[in-house]
Every structure is written in structure tokens, then in C-alpha cells.
Design a protein that fits this description.
The structure is a homohexamer of 312-residue chains.
Chain A: E1 4-5, E2 10-11, E3 21-22, E4 27-28, E5 33-34, E6 39-40, E7 45-46, E8 51-52, E9 57-58, E10 63-64, E11 68-70, E12 75-76, E13 100-102, E14 107-108, E15 113-114, E16 119-120, E17 125-126, E18 131-132, E19 140-143, E20 148-152, E21 155-157, E22 174-177, E23 184-187, E24 190-193, E25 196-202, E26 213-218, E27 226-231, E28 236-242, E29 245-250, E30 255-260, E31 265-269, E32 274-278, E33 285-290, E34 299-300, H1 303-311
Parallel strand pairs in A: 1-3, 2-4, 3-6, 4-7, 5-8, 6-9, 7-10, 8-11, 9-12, 11-13, 12-14, 13-16, 14-17, 15-18, 17-19, 21-30
Antiparallel strand pairs in A: 19-20, 22-23, 23-31, 24-25, 26-33, 27-32, 27-34, 28-31, 28-33, 29-30, 29-32
Chain lengths: 312, 312, 312, 312, 312, 312
């Protein structure tokens, strides 16, 4: 075995992958399973019912209690704190432990606190000092106490077309492509006059399909995340009529985030694009045109299924 | 001549139709033209450049200055006051007088004041004590100082479907007909849940056409009147997404007024219906679906042309 | 007959009381009934179905159409305009005329407009230029277009106890009498601290009865007038918990108006006091304690019945 | 005498200037004094204690009660209604009449109502249908019920420098002259950045004097009129820091009105300019720099004194 | 001695109860007092002036500084951080240490921070990641930075009667019992009409006593906790007239929490029920009727005294 | 060497000053540099590229990663967590580490989290549990997640002159000195009347200089800190015209904080006083008069340069 286990550590497990280091004053129980190429800094404690993948980094001051699962390439910052009992009482042992899973490639920042029973999604990023009270979606970035989503990793923020200097030279209707394949930001004419303002769009022309259905979303609590799915065949077109919200679009390769903040601004989401809507203001009203009637089978609700379909 | 001109009146004109009465202490100048079957109450003054149609009633205390035109069947209440100079100054005569026209069948209530240069539309009704500072549309009812439109004559007010006792037994989507031919009030499902509320409609099904175009109207000053036209072939469907507004629909025979006040309520306007939108709240946002692309030739913008087409 | 009818007037009626003057260029129809000691200024017109009491003053430029009734000691200002048809159309005569009654001692200011079918209550005062669109209660003062109640004639405005310089020396609870017999303004302790504010009252002690009932009034449109009755045996105690409203109290001899604008301020209304609540702010919430359970027979809803009971 | 008094009028006074016309069915009492070159239309009534200047026009349906004074070149529109008793009661004569004075060159629009005891200032304009409840300043234009000032006669409205197309080519600080001698609208640099916005001015440079004093005006009721004076030697510089207000500047020859609506916009008023501030929004805060310390003797508070000083 | 002290720990005290375990890499000073049946996880440090009761659990990464007192059955989560100096400076030792006491049965969640000088009440629960800046009441649950009370342990949340499906079949007034003995939620008639809305209740009938006193509570900061006492003989009835607040009722056996959010909803609290009001909205106004006049001796302000009385 | 390195610690560096203690289970790398008189509690880890000054205290559970610099007399509370990579990913090493510097005399409270790349200023105080996401200015006190400035250490809070009991006996204008040399709080006359309120000041009299310049600051985000400089020769006078903000004044010996919350309240800052403005409300508008025109050379922007100038 080519592991480097420091002699000042107290390590009982034999289940450790190659090239894994464990430093001073660590305590590792006999049942723990630890992958290859891991680095476990000083003062870490790992209980029996813990499974750690390959390429994982665990900084000092961390305890992994029974029920913690760390997938490959996870990063756990210093003094990050896990737990496995929502309502702990001394000498009262919960009938079953709550599992905590940190998925492939996720990172948890320094001194963050993770409540029990949650999943930290693939590629997600928990900010330093965050107190995570609900599961973190794939690729999401969360900060604060309680932690809230503030963005997604590796995401382009589309320039607000409204304030673009180039835009002023162009006469709506027009549309701009984004970094995400097939997703376009549309701009419609906005005609204010003394009697009120007016904006107009034509289906099949500026909006690239004939709708079969519309729906409207409103009264959304500001911390709510909606969408989180892709469609197999349905096209969608989104306009935020009052207030504003942000839309994340992800084609499996690139991600972009578009702020919808004006009734003369629309976003086209073709099929096979993963979409998320969030950062709703209190007064936001989102109008969505859909190219097809409702069909539950058209929804892809698992991000990994979506990624598999994209890759195939 | 069969006129009845009271001997205590001072009437110089010879241009008076038959069966017209003029009562005590009236003063009528030599150039005035007065139609048949009129009744002109005591203490009225009529200058030279005045033309009065048939069947007109003028109550006491009214003066008709040079430039006033009253068409057939007009009613002028007691002490109604006309003027012909916007910025009167003693001994300063305006270069040209402003004409005031009261169209066929209009009525002006007691003690109203009419600023110069205005037209009171056919069938319009000016409320008692109103101070009229801009022209009054066809069939409109105006009151206040300054006068504002508060309704249209001979118009049914549709019961608000929301509060209808019958409605509670029905599950949206459904629609109700109105007194105006082809005009229906639609109700859509409204589904609130913890994450926000949702409403949905399907084109070609609940909305009786496939739209080619949508437009949105917003930031409308509350005293503004919009629409005031009919379409020859275009169908429209109106939903007020926030705030509320009222829609007048007129098929040339009946008139109805519908309050749009909820995102799950829509109004269908078929072709050949005269439509007016007004009583916008400050925050109103009106979404309109149209069955055809924009075509200026499809608009009928004159109410009398509309009535001729309806009758033919 | 000692009437003074000017030779330039055209007066047909014989039914005129003594000491009544009618001036130049008046027109009075044969059916009119006019009382004694009246003064009818120049340029007035009076139709047949009009009844005028004694001691009435009518200034110039006024027409009294069929259906107008003026009781004794009424004052009609110059150019005041009556009407007897809500929706006048030329040559369309209403099936029945709407009566207008101006009750004993009421005054109508210069150039006011009175819509048909209304009653101007005893002792009421219509301000100059007002456009009166609903009946005016007993003793009320109305102004504006449309006219709204702004006060009551001969009414003391109670000093706001809050801002009374004397008040600052006194420690609540205490109460102050008003000019109206038995009606008291109460002040309760108001105890603010870091955790919130508190106010307290004791029934049977500071509030002079034990309640059998409470009710709360809220969402009152600001122009609404409530109350307008007295109780035979029931005591009431009013506190405005948020916003504010004004209460008129009238014992048949004196009238007082009290502004309720603080949760630590109450108003005691004993039986046999006529009460009116008005000038509600949009957010006003009025809490009323009552000494008796509801009993329709306890209400005196006619002001003249109330006055008779007071006098007896 | 070269007057033209119509034989159908009942005129008792002998006190009438030359070239004055009085038309049919007028009633003029023996004590009335009427100037030269007046025109008094049909159906007017004039009591004894009335004084009318030269060149006055009075349209039909007007009564001038005891106590009315009309100065030279006044215009009184049709059915304008005066009064001389604030709380009229039949048969109750006020101990003294309230005088109403309409000053030189003022005009009163059709069907306006003037409450007793008021003065309508020189050159003022009362809009048609207005109900005037307080005195009208020199040159003011009032409309509505109750009447409020909406402008001043013969006044240039300065283009809002902010929205001027030329302005965008210029870099502040700069200033623009107005139609009023010496009065300039200044524009200061406005530097917004992420940390807040900043605006700056230098005394003796962009502001054409070194201040000895500043004062701030706020909490002004929106209908309030402030200023109404000129200074003999003091320079002033006005900036509206929040909300907005309008400033009328008058050099005795021209008048201009400037909207102050931004903290980077200032108005320079040199000595011997009559200034009025009005149309305050509820939140307006006006900062004024003055070149001299307070000196009551520096104020000219009478517009006629100001005009005399200007002319001399 | 039957303790299990791991050989890799550095434990100097001899004052340790039986069946207590201390794990690897712990540091325990000579003066520390530790009870029986405790479990002290790896990497814990315990200074001299520390007293720990029986049955206490201390997870890894915790330091107990001089001045910390943990009573029986306390749970201290991993990386929970105590302190004993409010304004620490290197090499500046405070004149006296601030004590921190965690009372019987309290639990402190993972990675929470406890400021010095505070008491964590019996049975209280500090959420993971909370930063506790003031003492925590008995049974309270606190979370956040800074920590605020969000509930009480083992408390039923009463269904909001308003939205109960059963409720719609019943006609108010009626009342529902709760899980707490004698505590009922009442519903009163709510009668809206054009003139405003009205609600009514009768004392001795729907409200189960005749009040001697009322008080009102308002302007309560939203984080405020009020009440925290029981009455020996006084009955109370609570109605929240505007805004809303929550009431915790506790009979010593069960706890329930009721949201008061409508003027037609009331809560009856009999004697010998511990009550707490909290979660006030900014505009909340709470009206309380009491069956007795104020008597300081009627209040039980200590929860342990209340529990003793309940048990006896 | 007189160090006390506990035998249970694993310390590799030789670079440790005298009188420094290192306790059990610490890990110190060979490259670390540690000053004299330090105290390093149990369970601390110190990497190679770390420099620690003299007199530093480090409590248990802290890790000092490569790139951390602690200057003299710094206090690091228990479980305080540093980091050196903003977007950590397992096995991805940043191209360069972000340095974190804690300046002389600063203290970091228990369990605080410090994001990488920041500087904690001299004498600053980070509250327990704070999550520090931007650099902390000299002497500032920060708390919360994310941390915000709530005050400055050793600062007198000036009593609000408005509510001072003494103040009511004095008639403005007057001024009060503060604990900071030459800094005075001024009070100007405030004259409210029905037409609005007015406040006035005279330059060279109540304001102790003649201004050459004014500037106004507004639209400042509430978390923004402005100023942070002293002037060599320029005098300033600050008035907050709407909303409010707080001003810190520091003469190098004393610090005071003044709340500016009224247009009749001003603050005089002489030359050589360090000033900071913060706690701006959203609507705050700060007017500043300056005795000199703008001169970049007059600004001292480094606090240490300021302190040197003060001391010399």
C-alpha cells in the first residue's frame, strides 16, 4: 500500500485507496471506506459508516459522521461541519441516521454547516460560512444563513440587452443569440405614447413557433427555484411582464443566465435545454408560451438523464 | 308659420322651423337659424351665428353664442353655459371664434359648462354641473370638474363572473355569453400552491382562435380611453394580468361593459364589434391576442361608418 | 293682497301669500303655489307643479321646475340650478317627474346644481358651486363636485385631547365632558416600551357600562356616512384603533364633533344622543362596545322623531 | 349721453359712462355706478352698491350684488355667479356685506362661482366652471372646484434643460438664459457611481455670488404659493433637492416658469425680479442660497410697488 | 473508576463521573468537573473552570473555556464555539470572565456560536450554524445570524380555521378546541357590504366570560416575544385586528401555536395556561379581553414555578 | 530558547520568538515564522507560508493556511476559519494563493469565517460568527453573514441633540462640542408653519467659514462607506437633508459618531480630522459645504499617514 498515514494519526480502517494521505491527529474508525488520491488534513475525524470516493480533499477540523457520503473529487473546506440528527438530544439516538451526500465535483467552503439529510448536487459550490438547510441543485452556488442560491457555476451572464450600447442602433424586433445553443434573447418594439405604452410580437415570426398553450406564474416567493427540467420536444418562450426574474439555460455544454426585466424582452428556450427560473421579485409575473399542450412524458426532470441524452 | 313666439320675447330672426316655441324674455338675433319642433324656454339668448336643428330643447338661462351648432334632437339643460373664447379679455376680440358642436341626440345636463372649440358626440350625455374641457366621444357619459368619462349610454354591465353564485359550481375553463353578439367572458383555471400560482389556457380550444399576434398595453393613465374601433376580420382576446380595466363592446344593437380584473379571466371580441377600453387602474397590464397580423385596412375607426356597415 | 309683483314680471298664479315680492322679468305659471313673506329676485322662472313655503328667498337666474318643493325659510342662491329628469332627452318626457324637496331652513349656495329626486335636509347648507348628487342629511354642510359632507352646521369641534396643553398635566385614565349632554371624551393610559405599546381600559369603571356586545367597522369608503341614529336605551363606547374617523354627537340642543385618532382615546355616547360617524380614513378600524344586545326596536332612525322625543 | 340702453331693459341709475351698452331684460338699480365703454349683455342684474370701471364686459346671466367692485377692463363671462354672504339664510341679513373686488384686466370664465369677500388680482384669469374659494394672486390662472392655481398668464414655460436635445452635447456646469432678464437656469455636474451620486457647484464661479446665508423650505402643502416678492439688492440661487416645485420669475416685462426637479439644476434670481414658488410636490425640499443676510427692508411685497419701481 | 479515557487524550482532572468516555486528542485541564455517563468526542478541549453535569454529549471540535457550565443531558454539536470575552484583545485579560450556562436538556446544533454571558434555557434548541447573541428562553427554538426564535419544541401548529375545509360548512359564530386543555379557537361572523365590513361577538355567549378589562398591544417589533406568563385565575380572549401574530399556549403537558390573522378570529386562554405571543407583523394590533382587573399576584412568571403548580 | 512547546505538539519550524507557547496536538510546518510572546492553543495548524508577529493569541481549532499574515497583537478566536482559494476544487491548485492580512491589534471573534484575499484593518473587530466577504477598514466593527460595519471601536456616540433634555431650554442656532477636538454639532432654527417649514443658517456666523463650494451626495447604497479621509486645510460642514446617515470623526486621539437626521442639524469638521460617512438610509441626501475649492493634494487618504501627521 502506498498510502501516507502519519504516525500521529489514529487510523483503524484498512479500506483506503492508493496515494491517499492522512495527516496528524486524525481519527479514522475501522469501518470507514476511503478512495484513492485523497488528502485528509490534520484534526479530521471519520466514523464507521462513511464512504469517500477518489480524489477527495478534506481540510482540517472536519468530522464525517456516520451517514456521510462524499463522491469523487469533492472538496471539503476547513472546519466544515456535518451532522446526522435534525433534533439532537443527548443520549437519545435517532431511530435511523439521516444520510448526507456530496455529489461528484462539489465543493464546500470554509466553516460551512450542512444540515442532515441533504444532497449537495454535482458541481455545486457552497460558499464559506453558509448554513445549508435544503438540498443544493446541480451546479448551484449557495451562500448565507440560511443558504440561498445566488448563481450557477461556469455561467455566462448575458448582457442586459436594454442597456447594451449596440442595441440602441437597432430597431426591434430583433433577437440575439447566447452562448447556449439555440437560446435567443428577443427584443420587441416598445411604443410609448401619451395614452400608454404598447409592445407587440408575432407568433411564427419573431416568436419562432405557434403556441398551443400559455401559462402564467406569479406570487412566487423570492427564494423559490422553478423549472429545473428540460423538454424533449416542446419549445418555450418566456416574458416577464412585471417585476423581474432570472432564467438559467444550459445545453449540457454551456450555461447562461438571462435577466428578464421588461415586457418587451423575451427568451426563447428550444427543446433539450435545461432551464431554471429564480431570483423572482415579489411582484414578478412570468408569461410562458409553449409550442405543445401539456404532456408529462415530455419533461426530463433529472439532470443526469438530461446529460446522458445530450451526450448520446 | 305655426310658431309660437311669446310676445314678451325679442326675436329678430325669420329663420325658424314650424312648431317651434320661444318663450318669455328670450333674445334671438336676426341671423340665427332655428329648426322645427324646438322648444326654447324663457330667458334664453341666441346670437346671429348659431344653427339649431330640429327637435331641440333649450331650457332657461342658456346663451348660444356665435359659433354654437346644435344638431337634431339635442337637449340643453337649464343654465348650461357655452363660451367661444378660451382666453377672454374685455374689448379684445379673438381673430376667429371657436366652434362648438353638439351632435345628434346628445344631452347636456343642468348647469354644465362647455369650453369652446369642442364637439359633444352623437348620443353623448354630459352630467349636471360638469365642466367639459375636451371633446366627448360618441355615446359617452361624462361628469365632474374637469369632466371625465364614467360610462356609455344604454350599456349592460356584465356581472363579474368571479362573484357569480353559479360560477362556484363550475370548474374552469368555461365561458359565458353576453348581451353583445359573439362576445364571451372566459374563465380559466387558477392553481395556487406553495411555490406560486399558475393559470393556463389553450388556443383553439378555450380561446376560440389561434393567435397570430399578441400585444400588451400598460402604463395607461387612468383617465385614458383606448380602442374606439372595430375590426372587419380580426378576432381579439383580452386578459388583464394585473390591475384592472373595463371594456365596452358594442355590436351596433347592444352595448355591454366587462370589468377585466384577474389573470384567469378573458374577454373574446369577434370581428365587427366596436370596442373601447377605459377605467384603467394605474398598474393595469392588458394582454391582447389577435387572430391576424396587423393590417391598417382592417380597422374601422369611425363609429358612423361602423353603424352603416352593421345596418347593411 | 299686499304682494308686490313688478309690472315687468309675467305672473299667472293667484296663489301667492301676503308680503311676497316678485321682481322684473320673472315668469310664474298659473299652477304655482307661493307662500307669504317670500322674495323672488329678477329672472326667476317657476312652473306649475311647484310649492313654495313662507319666508323663502330665491335669487336671480333660478328656475323651479315641476316637482320642486321648497319648505319654509329656505334660501336659494343666484343661478342655483334644479332639474327633474336624470337622463334628459329632447322630446322624450319621463313617465313621472322626480320630486326635489328642500326642507325647512336649508340654504343652497350660489350656482349650486341639484340633481333630481333628492332631499336637502332641514337646516342643511349646500356650498356655492356644489354639484349635489345624493340627498343631504339634516344639518349637513356639503361642498364640491360631487358634493361631499364636510361638517354639520352649528357644531363645536372638540379640541383634540391629545394636544390639549392641560392634558399633559393629567395622568390617564380620565375623561372630559363635551358641549353635548352626557357625551364624554375618554383618555386611557398608553404605555409604550421597547417591546411594543399597550393601552388598557376597565369596563364599569373608565368605560361607564359593562358591554354585552362589541362590533368592529372597517374597510369603509372615505366618503361614507355611518350611524345617523340614536338609541333609546343602549350605551355605546367608540375607539378608533387605526386610522381615524370623526363622530358627530347631537343631543337635540347642541352638536359636537370629535376626532377619534388614537387607540387610547374613546368616546362615550349615552342613550338619546344622535350619532353620526364620517371622515373615515381608508385604514380606519372602529371598535364599538354596546351595553345591550342587538334590538332593532332600540334604534331611532328618524331625526325628526328623535327631536320630538327630545322635546317631550 | 351716448349710451345705448335697450328699451326692454329696466335701468334706474343715471351714473353711466359714455359708449356703454346695456341690453334687453337687464335690471340696473338706481345706485349703481357704471363706467364708459362697457358692454352689458342681456339678462344681467346690477344692484345699488356696485361700482364698475371703464371698458368692462359683462355677459348674460350675471348678477352683481351689493358689494361687487369691477375695475377697468374686467371680463365677466356668462352665468358667472357672485355672492355676498358666506352663510346665507333666508330673511337673515348679514351685519355687513362682504366686498368682492375684481382688479384691472382680470377675466372670469363662463359659469365660474366667486365666493364672497375675495379679490381677483390684476390680470388674473379664472377658468370656466371654477369655484373660487380664496383670493387669486396677480396674473394667476385658476381652475377647478375648489379653484387652484395652475399657471400665470403670458408666461413662457422654460424647456426642461434635462430633456433638451441640445443639452446632451454640453458638459455641465453651464447655464441658459431665459426670457426674463438676468434669470438663468444652471446645470451642474452629476456624477453617479456604484457608491452613490454626487453633484457639486462652486460659489463665485458657477453660482454668480458668494452666499452669506442659506435656507431650506420643506413640508409645503401642495397647494401652497410661496415667495410672491422681489428683492431690491439680494441675489438668490434655488435648487430643489428632492421632489420638485415650479418657480415663476417676472421682471415686470416678461414672465417665465421653471420646473426645478433635480439636485443638479439651479435657478439664479437677480435683484428686482418678482418670484413665486408653487406646485410643490409633497416631498419637495428647496435649498436657497442668498447673497445677503436677512433684511426685511430688502423685500418688495406689493406687485404694484414692484411694477412702479420697474417702470421708474 | 469505570471511565473510558482514550490513551491518546491528555486528561489532567480526576473529577470525572462513572461511565463517561473521553476520546482521542482531547485536552482536559486539572480543574474541570465532569459528570457521569458523558460522552466527549475527539479533539475537544476543556479548561479548568468548567462544570459539566451528567449525561452530557460533546461532539468533536468543541472548546469549553473557563466559565462554561453545562447542566444534565445537554447536547453540544460538533464545532460549536463558546467564548468568554465580548471584546477580546490579545494579551488583554478581562477583569472577570462571563459565565455561559446551558440548562438541563438543551441542545446546541452543529457549528453554532454562543456569545459569552448568555443562558440557554431548559429544553431549548439552538439550530445548526446559529450565532446566539442573547439568552434563549425555555423550550425555544432559535436559528440564524443573529439567532431569532422561530418556534417552541414539541408544539402543535393549529390548522388555520379560515382555510379548514370543514369550516366552510359551518356558520360562525363557533369555536374549535385545541390540543391544549381548555384553549379554543373562535370564529365570528364577518359581514361585508358596500358600506364596509362588520364583525360581532357577544360576551358571556361566544366569548366565554364577561370582561372586566381590555388591553391592546401594538407597535411590537417583529422579533419581540411577549407574554411568557400564566394566570392563576384570569381568563383571556385574544383577537388580532390587523396584521397577525402567533400565540403559544402550554398547559404543562401539551403545547400549541395558533396564528391570529383576522378580526373575526379569537383565541380563548383559560387560567393556568402558559402563554407566549410572538411573530408579530409590523402592523399587528392585538386586542385582549380579560375576565379580571389587573392583579400582579395573579401572574406566574417563572416557567418552573408554573410546571410545579401544574404537577401538584 | 525559552519557548514552551508542548511535547504532544508536532512543531517543525525553528523560527519562533521567545516566550511563545504552543500547546497540545498543534501542527506547525517547517517554514512558519512565529513571533515572541505568542500563545497558540491546542489543535491549531500552521502551514509553511505563514508569518505571525509578536504578542499574538490564537485559540483552538484554527488553521493558518499558506498566505496568512498576522501582525503584532492580533487575537484569533476559537474555530476562526481562514481560506486561501475563492473557488476551491479538489486537486485543482490555484495559480497563486490569495494573501490574508490581519493588521496590528485587530481581533477576530469566535467561529468567524474570513474569505481569502482580504485585509482586516488595524484595531478592527470581527464579531463572533461573522462571515467576512470584503476587507475591514481601520478600527471598524463588523458582524453578520455577510459581515457589515456596525460601528467603530472606542467611539463615543453623540447624544442626538434633538432629544437632549437640555436642548429644549436652548434656542437655536447653537452648537455643542464633541469629544473630538474642533468637531461641533450645530442646531439651526426650524420654523414650521401652515405653509411649510423653513430652516436657515448664516455663513461666517453659525457656520464657521464662507464656502467656496458645495456638493451633494445621494443614492448611496445602504452598506456603502464614504469619506475615509482627512483634509489638510479644508473645513467642511455637513447637513443631511433627507433620510439620515452617520458620521464618524476621529482626531487621532478620540473618535465620535454623530447621527445626522434632520435638515436643521449640521456637523462641522475642521481640517486634520479623519471622517467616515456610513449607515446611509436609502433616501439620504447629504449636503456638504467646503471652505476651499477642490484640491486633490489636500486629501489624506491613508489612515497611517494621518496618524503620523497627527503625532508629529
Amino acid at each position: 500500500m502506498t498510502n501516507n498515514i502519519h504516525p500521529l494519526a489514529d487510523v483503524k480502517t484498512k479500506n483506503i485507496g492508493s496515494n491517499t494521505n492522512i495527516w496528524q491527529f486524525c481519527v479514522v474508525f475501522a469501518g470507514a471506506k476511503i478512495g484513492a488520491n485523497c488528502n485528509i488534513s490534520a484534526h479530521v475525524l471519520i466514523e464507521d459508516d462513511v464512504v469517500i470516493g477518489d480524489g477527495v480533499t478534506i481540510k482540517s477540523g472536519v468530522q464525517l459522521w456516520d451517514g456521510v457520503r462524499l463522491e469523487d473529487n469533492v472538496f471539503i473546506g476547513p472546519n466544515v461541519t456535518f451532522s446526522n440528527d435534525l433534533y439532537p438530544h443527548s443520549k437519545v439516538h435517532p431511530s435511523h441516521l439521516l444520510l448526507t451526500t456530496v455529489k461528484v465535483g462539489a465543493s464546500i467552503g470554509a466553516n460551512a454547516t450542512i444540515l442532515p439529510g441533504l444532497t449537495i448536487g454535482e458541481g455545486a459550490m457552497v460558499g464559506a460560512g453558509a448554513v445549508v438547510t435544503s438540498s443544493v441543485p446541480v451546479n448551484a452556488v449557495v451562500v448565507g444563513n440560511p443558504a440561498q442560491i445566488v448563481g450557477y457555476t461556469n455561467t455566462t451572464l448575458e448582457k442586459n440587452v436594454k442597456s447594451s450600447p449596440l442595441a440602441s442602433d437597432r430597431k426591434p424586433p430583433y433577437s440575439d443569440s447566447t452562448s447556449v445553443s439555440g437560446v435567443n434573447v428577443h427584443r420587441f418594439p416598445l411604443i410609448p405614447d401619451m395614452r400608454g405604452s404598447l409592445t407587440v410580437g408575432e407568433f411564427g415570426q419573431h416568436i419562432p413557433f405557434i403556441p398551443k398553450r400559455y401559462f402564467m406564474v406569479f406570487d412566487v416567493p423570492s427564494k423559490e427555484i422553478r423549472g429545473e427540467h428540460a423538454h424533449r420536444t416542446c419549445h418555450q418562450f418566456l416574458i416577464c411582464l412585471r417585476g423581474n426574474c432570472s432564467v438559467l439555460a444550459d445545453d449540457g455544454v454551456n450555461r447562461t443566465e438571462v435577466l428578464l426585466d421588461s415586457p418587451d424582452k423575451g427568451l426563447y428556450l428550444p427543446p433539450m435545454v435545461w432551464g431554471v427560473q429564480y431570483k423572482y421579485t415579489q411582484d414578478a409575473l412570468l408569461l410562458v408560451f409553449a409550442s405543445h399542450n401539456y404532456d408529462a412524458a415530455d419533461y426530463i426532470r433529472s439532470y443526469s438523464e438530461f446529460m446522458q441524452l445530450v451526450k448520446s
